[in-house]
Amino acid sequence: MTTQEHQATHKPRIALYGGAFDPVHRAHLEVARAARRQASLDRVAFIPAAQSPLKAHSPVASDAARLKMLELALAGEAGFVIDDSELKRGGVSYTVDTVQAFKARMPDADLYWIIGGDQLEQLDRWHAIRELAQAVTFLVLARPGYQLSAPGVSGLKYETIDAPLMEESSTSIRERIVNGESVIGLLPQSVEAFIREEGLYT
TM segments (predicted)? Predict the structure, then answer.
């Protein structure tokens, strides 16, 4: 097969990585790198949510600040892009709406959605999960010693990704900043500098 023939038959493998990213931190990047490597992805799209349907509170930082932190964090990362469609759409961010928009733009792509093992267990609570399960393959972060439990959703497809433990969460990092504790090593340096310059989370 020639290079041109391979390119003609290759279906882009794109993973969608949703979250508040409030702030984006090093573990987010490590997860995306692991997923890209292990699932042979062409691209990982980071999708900051306007408002998660399963979270009671809105993001702390503004949409503009969260986008800027993502831009800083992803600079120089091959295959990583930002998609701000949920922010533009506003309101509660339903995954199925985002996936449908991606499928309309890239009908030939194989779409994946990155989630944690704890989210896999809750998929039956997700809006329009049966429709979503037909449209994407979930990439589930498998943590050492953690037994994955998938709900009985018709058509559900998932693959496991060995990823580093996300011991620090965005919530705990915000708490550290509020308490004046060090966040060195938890955030990309550019993101840490931006948070300090803008006085975020204080």
Answer: none
